[in-house]
Every structure is written in structure tokens, then in C-alpha cells.
Amino acid sequence: MKIKRIAAISVCATVLSAAELPVRTVVLYKHGVGYFSRHGTLQPGDTARLDFKTGEMNDVLKSLTITDSGGKVTGVRYDSSIPLEQKLGDLPFLIEKGQPLSAVLDQVKGARIEMEFGPQKIAGAIVSARLIPADHDHSEREQATLFLDSGELRNVDLSAASSIRFTDAKLQSQFRDYLAAVTGARSKDKRSVYIDSTQTTARDVRAEYIIPMPAWKSSYRLMFDPTGTGATLEGWAIVDNTTGEDWTSVRMSLISGKPISFISQLYAPKYIARQGAELQEDKALAPEVYNGAISVESQQRAAKMSMAAPMSQAISGAVGGFVPGQSRSQPTTIAAPAMAQELADLFEYDIARPVTVRKDESAMLPFLQQKLTARKLLIYSNTGTSNPLSAAELSNTTGKTLDGGPITVYDAGAYAGEALVETVKAGDKRFISYGLDLGTRISTTQNSHTDDVREIHVHNGLLISKSAVIQTTSYSIRNVDPRPKTLIIEYPVRLNFHLIDTAKPLETSSTVYRFEVKVPASGSVEFQVTDENVYDRQLSLSSINPDGLLAYIRNRTISDTARKQLQQIADLKTQIVKADTDRNALSSQILAATQDEERTRQNIASLSSVSGQQQAVQDYARKLSEQEAGIVRLRERQSALDQQKTALQFQLNDLMGQLDF
After folding, report:
1. What pTM, to 2 d.p., does this model score?
2. Where on the phi/psi map is residue 490: left (φ > 0), alpha (ψ -120 to 50), or beta?
3. Does the pLDDT of residue 426 top 90, yes or no?
4. What torsion do the CA atoms of 209, 210, 214, 217 make, to the nearest 10 degrees?
5. Helix, strand, or coil here: 67?
């Protein structure tokens, strides 16, 4: 019972004179934060308390701003993020769940206490405290042994004491700190910020900060006019109050845009790892360990290898040192989000009337209801269906930025479908589609072919030709409804392709061309889109054979002079090819003659050792002489062909080097 009394006193002291600073303004953004402004009166000596969730503290500490009406704020305190076990570990006692008072007192042996037993008061230092069995039943009672001021040791019954008080102010403070820490830990996700003041006059105080908040969401209702030339756009904002407190009659604004925002770890204590350093002379001398001897020859070989080793290898095995080419530490960077291009591109929706949203509730708030220009039409993107989509072209003539979101479409007072639109700036326009038009059917056919060589150029021995791939897409459109329609055909923008022989598109996005086609009532219409890809092909003149050059010579796009020059190159290449062919034929003849000559030599060698074959040997000798003379003549012709080819090749290289058109 006494412990509970101490806890109550401690809690009261912690929250004493907490002033209210109600929420007055709430500004919600699309990127996950909310701006809050609180305003209230701080009386002399008051402390204002603001409660936050643990996950909000980083943003609070980064953004909190305090202003007042002429007074002075003496400080801002907040609950630490130090774990409860660490806070309690510095205190000289521990109060566990269900622990009796005697066990607590026994932990502070030597502490001086004063006790009251009715009209009697005693004071002394705690020697010990314990539980002992009761005299008449199986229960236990608490007893403490005190060393009184008179020098007497006395056992006292703790349950009989009407009051127990520590006389040491420091110990009293430690008990208060202990109980305050335990009380604060009951709400694991709650942290408080305290604004202190010692002023002698009351004044107005304003606190402003940002915290993480759910992004507000927008949804629209589009209602077409009976004429079909305009529409009314109604916008609703969906907001969620997850702060744990009511928003009562607050001024609310909604921001369309994405400013840069990030989280810095400011709430958790930051400990810096420091370098260890000591003087070399303070280190103890380490023992040396000597290796066994090796042979002299091995020593010399090892020394040569050591001298030949690169310096980087010599130090790469260092321990505890800095190795060249390696960083001592890796810097930590905080990547800003990929919304930087939206910075300062903001638009505010200021809710005209005060807003009330209870805690843990959400609300729908109207922020727009205006006429705007809307044109009903059809959109066809050739996505695998033969029917186009019912659509509309919305021109933002509201003078406001329209935040992106879903649109529910009503036509002739009935539900017509749903669409999704991205953010639209004032003066801009967007297409939306909300249903399938079954009264219009579209079929497509494609024809693709490669055009002939359009241009030929030669420079620095390279032949560059330009050709084109041409594709024509035909749309056959049939309208079975008895009213005319406007159709938007979306044709993809393809890399390196360009439109030709086609009507100018209504507009072009980064991915599609949009063509507007008027479709008559109960009628049909044909529409074509043609694009081409002009590409270059480069070939070395030296690698093109004469037949390959013939195709370029016959091309009608080159001049007569260029055609003659290419023809000269083709003729030289033909002569070089013929020289190679003739030389290869001579090589075959030389090989055959050499083989015949070798057989003749073998016959002479075999007949020379046989008697009576002198005449045959002489005949073979004459034949061998003729064969050698024939081989000489063949080799002379082959050498002449080599010289001819060299001259032709030199002439060809000179001509190709000069060719430029």
C-alpha cells in the first residue's frame, strides 16, 4: 500500500500543471506527412505537454517550432528512448511485480527511515527486512530490523506502521524517478514533449511540427450536361485521423504535390565509435620467435624472389594497417526520394469551414464543385478488342490543380462507368475512358515492307547505304448507332520510326500519337497510319565482291560519275579475282608436275642398279630435264601473276581511297 502511495505522488509530480495546446490547424500532404499547428495559453509556471507516438518523434524533433506572444520558453524536454531496463539499472533497487515492501527495504540497507505507529514515532537505519511466519496461522508477515538513534536494534512489524518515510532526499528522488519510468513505460508507443516556462505572466504559445500521416485521397464525380458539351466535376477528399486525439473545429488544408521529405534518426541516442590510440612506448615488448635455418642455396633463391615481387604484394598481407587501394570506411548516404522534380509544384485546397474529425475516424470533405469543359468521344488503342472505349476529353478550366484519383461518371442521370486520372494542372487537359462502346466496331490490318536503297555514300573506304522499313496500319471503322461519333485512335510511338503520308495527329504523348477521326451516323470510314524506319548500313569497299557492287552500281540514286567510279572498282576487283583464279590453277599444275618429277627420280634411282637398263635411265633423265624446265616456266608465270595482282591491288586501294561522294 505504501509503494502505491509513493507512485501516485511521483506521477502527480511528473504531470503537474500540464497546459492544453489544442490542435488548431491541420495540413495533410500526399507524400505521407501532416503539418499541425497547436495554439493555447500558457499560465505562469505552466508546462505544456504534447503526446506523440514513438514513430513520430524523429519528425517532431526535426520540425518542431515554438513561438509565443512576447514571453520566453525556457526549454523543451521529451521522454527519452532509453530502454526501461537501462533506466532502472542505474538505481540501487529493483521493484518486481508482486514484490512485498520488506523485499524493497532490504535492498536499501543502511538507509534512514522514519516510521509512525499511532502516536509513537521511531527513526533509524535499515539493517534488514524479511517475511516471517505468522504466530497463529500459515500466513506470513513483514518485519524489519532497525538500528535506532539510541544504538538499539529493534524488530518492527511493517504492517502495523501507519507511515513510512525515507529521510534521505536523494533516495526519495530515486524512488520518484523509478516510479515515473515505470509509469511512462506502460504506454509503449507514447512519448511526451514538455514545453517549460518560468515567466510570471500568461501568454499565447504556438507549437508547429510535422508527423507521419496517411496520405489524403481524392475521388471525383463527373456529371455530364444534357447537351454533352460540358460537365460538373465534384471532388471529395478522404482524410484519416490516426493521431489518437480529436480534431475539433480545426482549419484544414489539403496539399496536392510531393515535396522532398525523409526520415532522420534524431530520437534514438547516437553513439560514435571512437578510434583507440596509445603510445608505442607504452606497449610491452613481445617475444621474438625465430625460425629454423634453411640451406644457403634456398636462402639465395628466396631473396631473389622477394626482390622480384611487386611492392603491392609485399604489403597486401598487413594486419591492422592501411592497405593502398582500399578505403578506410564506407560513407553512408541518405538517398533522397525520386520526387525531386515535383519540388515547389504544390497546390492547396483550403477547406472553407472548420472541420471536426474524431480520433480513429475518417471523413469525406468536399473541396471542389465546378463546371468544366468536357467532350464525349471514343478512344481506340488496339489492345485486343474490336470495340473502342467510351471516353471524354476533360479540359481543366477550373483554375485549380485537380489531384489525381478515381472518377465516377454519370451520364443522363445514370451511372456510366469509372475512370482513373492523374494530376491535372490548371489549363491542361486529359482523356479518360469509363466503358466499352458496343455500337462501334474496328478492325485493323498491317502491311510492312523494306524499301530499296534510297541513298549511297562513300567516304574513307566505307560504303554507307540508307534503306527503310515501311509499315502501314489500316483501320476499318463501322458505326451502327444512329448518331455521329468522334473517335481518337492511339497509335504507338516506336523507336526510330517516323510518320509519313499520314494526317497530322491531334496530339502526341511520350508513348502514342492520337488521331481524331469523325465517324458518320450508321456509317463506315477508313483510316491509315504509315510510319517508316530509315536505317544506315555500312560496308567496307574492300570486303564487297564484284557481284555485290553491281547492285549499288545499278541503283538510280547515285550520279553517273559515282557509278563510273564504282564500275572501275568493280572491274579491278574482277581482274584481281581472275588473277587469283589463274594463280591457283598454276599452283595445281606445279604440284602435279612436282609429283611427276619425283616419280621420275625414283625410277632413275631404281633402274641405275640394274644391268642392261642404261638406255631407260637416259630416257628418264631426258624426261626429268624437261619436267624441271616445265616447272620453271610455271613458276615464272605464277610470279608474273603475283606482280600483276600486286599492281592491281595498289591501283584498287588508290582508287578506293580517293572515292568520296
Report:
1. 0.61
2. beta
3. no
4. 90
5. strand
DSSP symbols for 616-639:
HHHHHHHHHHHHHHHHHHHHHHHH
Instruction: Tell me the three cell numbers of residue 321.
Output: 594497417
Name the grid cell of 484: 455521329
Nearest-5° Cα angle at 373, 367 to 377? 120
Question: What amino acid is encoded at 118 in this protein?
Answer: G
Please name the amino acid found at residue 3.
I
Helix (H) or strand (E) holding 375, with range, is strand 362-380
DSSP H helices in 197-247: none
Q: Which residues pair with 473 in a beta bridge?
A: 446, 529
301 or 589, which is more confident: 589
- Beta strands 405-411 and 217-224 are parallel
Of the candidates 598, 619, 642, the residue with the CA atom closest to the CA atom of residue 634: 642
User: Which among 58, 87, 54 has a CA at the least distance from the CA of 191?
Assistant: 54
CA atoms within 13 Å, Cβ hemisphere of 555: 23
CA dihedral sign of residues 453, 458, 463, 466: negative
pLDDT at 357: 95
Residue 229 sits at φ, ψ, to 5 deg, of -105, -5
Residues paired with 644 in a beta bridge: none
Name the band, by pLDDT with cuts 50, 70 and 90, for residue 326: very low
Neighbours of 252 (CB within 10 A): 24
Look-up of cell digits 505562469? 44
Instruction: Count CA within 13 A, CB hemisphere, residue 643.
Output: 6
519, containing H or E segment: strand 512-519
Task: Give the chain's mean pLDDT.
Answer: 81
Beta bridge mates, 408: 221, 418
Alpha carbon distance 534, 453 (integer Å): 10
The sign of the dihedral angle between the CA atoms of 646, 649, 653, 655 is positive
- The residue with cell 598454276 is 586
Contacts of 496 (CB under 8 A, 6+ apart): 533, 534, 535
How far apart are alpha carbons 514 and 248 in whole angstroms? 50
Q: Does domain 112-167 have CATH number 2.30.30?
A: yes
Residue-range domain boundaries for the chain: 7-95+168-212, 112-167, 217-249+355-436, 440-543, 546-658
Closest C-alpha among 184, 190, 185 to residue 245: 190
d(CA 360, CA 237) in angstroms, rounded, equals 17
For residues 437, 440, 441, 444, the Cα torsion angle rounded to the nearest 10 degrees is -100
Task: Give the distance, in angstroms, between the CA of residue 439 and the centroid of all CA atoms in the same chain.
Answer: 44
For 84, other C-beta atoms within 10 Å of its C-beta total 12
Q: Cα–Cα distances in Å, from 543 out to 299, 413, 452, 575?
A: 61, 74, 21, 15
Residue 389's pLDDT is 93
Which of 104, 81, 205 has the alpha carbon at shortest distance from 158?
A: 104
pLDDT for res 332: 29
Looking at residue 572, its pLDDT comes to 87
Could you give phi then psi for residue 565, rounded to 5 degrees?
A: -65, -40
For residue 565, give the C-alpha cell: 567510279
User: In this predicted model, which residue has the larger pLDDT, 255 or 229?
Assistant: 255
Contact 604, 617 (CB under 8 A): yes
